[in-house]
Description:
- By secondary structure, the chain is mostly helical.
- It folds into 2 domains: 53 residues; 111 residues.
- It is 93% helix and 0% strand.
- The protein is built from 3 helices and no strands.
- It is elongated, with a radius of gyration of 35 Å.
- The model has no long low-confidence stretch (mean pLDDT 77).
Amino acid sequence: MADVRKNQNESINKAAEASRAGTREAANQTQDAVSAGVEGFKQVTDQFTRAFGFTGESEEVTRRATQNLEAVTETGSVLLRGFQDLSREWLQLAQHRLQKNTEGLARLAQCRNLQDLAAVQTELVRENLQEMIDNTRRISERSVEVASEAARTITAETNKASDRFQRAA
């Protein structure tokens, strides 16, 4: 019985050692692959900079890419704020419309004859149409403001990056 346990322990130890060796080998291969990937990326970046006539090192390309990413991020922030403003505007318009519809139903309920009902109904349709036009105009104007602000932001960031590039060249 003791021999069986001893054999089991030896087998377990051998399996554990083989597992550790496999893990070490996998870690080494992973490290080699990462190193090769980094070196490959550096070579591609260098080739890219030469192919497109950039005179700086790959760090310059990385710096410009970072600046471009910052410009896109800033523009995204502007668009997100604009989307939030537009969402709030839509919510306020919906609440106002609900209030107006409730008031309209009350006015319809007060009608005593067919002529009054027709007059109130046509007045409500006219009011709804006018409000829809006004709301559409207001939302459109705000959308144009947001788009213009985003365009100004991306243009300003692009101009900054261009100025930095021209000074560096």
